[in-house]
Design goal:
With about 120 residues, the protein is mostly beta strands. The chain is about 0% helix and about 50% strand.
Length: about 120
């Protein structure tokens, strides 16, 4: 099994950028499809982006397409989320999750292991 740990959150003005990192220890990282999810206060956890375990495909929520980019470095056991043109509605706790041999599902129930989350706050 893997244990994801997120970092890189913070406070940024609207229009700014942040890069989140997720380091996964304890398992065969290259076997896991990785996903980023977020949860704003009073809302359900929602899919943001995913990257296939073989890095063949990436997946994005419509709300972040063209602004966010997910990537992975299997040598470093790390997945990244580059977030550009941030909006106040992007404010949430962002979670990294791992799905063994996953297909890139947007369903959080498909993911086996989760990090503790990192707060992203976008001010207007």
């Amino acid at each position: 099994q893997v244990q994801p740990v997120e970092s890189g959150g913070g406070l940024v003005q609207a229009g700014g950028s942040l890069r989140l990192s997720c380091a996964a220890s304890g398992g065969s990282f290259s076997r896991y499809t990785m996903g980023w999810f977020r949860q704003a206060p009073g809302k359900e956890r929602e899919f943001v982006a995913g990257i296939h375990w073989a890095a063949k495909n990436t997946y994005y929520a419509d709300s972040v397409k063209g602004r966010f980019t997910i990537s992975r470095d299997n040598a470093l056991n790390t997945v990244y989320l580059q977030m550009n043109s941030l909006k106040p509605e992007d404010t949430a706790v962002y979670y990294c999750a791992a799905d063994l041999w996953g297909t890139g599902s947007s369903n959080p129930g498909e993911y086996d292991y989760w990090g503790q989350g990192t707060q992203v706050t976008v001010s207007s």
